[in-house]
Automatic annotation (TrEMBL):
Species this chain originates from: Actinomycetospora atypica
UniProt name for this protein: DUF1330 domain-containing protein
Highest rank taxon of the organism: Bacteria
Span of domain DUF1330: 3-94
Length: 95
C-alpha cells in the first residue's frame, strides 16, 4: 500500500537555509522513490485550516517513505535546513 509524506511549513525563518535544503532534499527524495504530488500555498483553506506552504510526496509504502527520511542524503538536507523553518512533517499510509 502507498504512503504520503506531508510537510506543512508553519514559519520560514531563513529562506537561504530553505533554498539549500531544497537543492539537496529534492534529489534525495526522488532517488528514494518519492514523487512530488503537490507543493505550494493552499488554493483555499477551510474550518481551522491555515494558509501555509504544504508539500505532498507519494511513496510506494510507509517503509519506503521512512527509509527516504532516514537516508544519508536526506539527513544531509536536514542538516542544511537546520533552524531555517518550523514545520510539521508526517508520513501516513494511503487509504
Amino acid at each position: 500500500m502507498g504512503a504520503y509524506w506531508i510537510s506543512i511549513y508553519r514559519e520560514i525563518r531563513d529562506q537561504a537555509k530553505l533554498d539549500a535544503y531544497a537543492e539537496l532534499a529534492g534529489p534525495a527524495i526522488r532517488e528514494a522513490g518519492g514523487t512530488f504530488l503537490a507543493r505550494g500555498m493552499p488554493a483555499a483553506a477551510y474550518e481551522d485550516g491555515l494558509v501555509e506552504r504544504t508539500v505532498l510526496i507519494g511513496f510506494d509504502s510507509v517503509d519506503a517513505a521512512v527509509a527516504a527520511h532516514e537516508s544519508p542524503a536526506y539527513q544531509e538536507a536536514l542538516a542544511a535546513l537546520g533552524d531555517g523553518v518550523v514545520r510539521d512533517m508526517r508520513i501516513i499510509e494511503a487509504a
